[in-house]
Specification:
Layout lengths: L4 H8 L1 H14 L20 H13 L1
Helix pairs in contact: 1-2
């Protein structure tokens, strides 16, 4: 999902981010997911290729 335009915009738009978090927290909440607005500042977006590469390396061990 983070490769979608709306997700990239939400990371830099505090109002949009807070709206998404609020709705997710109410309607599609998952246990152990941090829905506080300040989590946005701690996010590190990782390109899917990097994610997959690390996953493959991890599985080889």
């Amino acid at each position: 999902m983070m490769n979608k335009d709306f997700a990239r915009k939400a990371v830099i738009d505090d109002i949009l981010w807070e709206s998404i978090c609020h709705l997710r927290g109410i309607y599609t909440s998952m246990r152990d997911v941090d829905y506080t607005p300040d989590v946005c500042k701690r996010l590190q977006l990782i390109p899917i290729e990097t994610f997959l590469m690390h996953g493959e390396q991890s599985m080889k061990r």
